[in-house]
């Protein structure tokens, strides 16, 4: 986004917020509407010059912490906060994870899907799955609750069953790492993400090699083939949905693949 869009957005919301609503006491007549730049800077613990340059559209960097303070001081709604971070080119992890009711609805949705379906969080831990997914993913979703295999990457690289279940494992495993790198994006260095990556690098030479390739690809879906120990060869079309209010979660469905013409 052009930097002046971010500056205009902040200025408009600064001018709409009354000092009293921000907890400031005012005396006398004010020439400008809303908060002054100096007042916004004080409330956000930044310099007035930085606010001025930001509103003027200059190339200044805004950290996620400062953007969070701006969103709180300006009393932005969830949609406005998301837009602020989008304009700044930053990922708002705390904002995405704050909508608990949306997460509950996403988790509950898998029970109403007849095809294998599961919900992954940002670390690709399985947050929910239906019976069809449990029956398909031998060694992952059919294991006891709380086991390390609940993470899709741990299962793929550390569970022996995965190499038999996932058809053409070397190709699929390499692509999975490229999809994960694209998916985690700016959160790759987060405190919650780094232990998982470190563990996988220490436990799997293949993961280490794929991770160090720095390949990135979108989670585009497509044909997925499994060699199930009881049901034999199974072919699905994978579809992934990202809920609008919880981009840290994803709903994955494996639909019956249509026969080739």
From TrEMBL:
One of its GO terms (molecular function) is DNA binding. Residues 34-81 form the HTH cro/C1-type domain. It holds the Pfam family HTH_31. Residues 1-32 are annotated as: Disordered. PANTHER family: BLL4672 PROTEIN, BLL4672 PROTEIN-RELATED. This is Transcriptional regulator, XRE family. It comes from Pseudogulbenkiania ferrooxidans 2002.
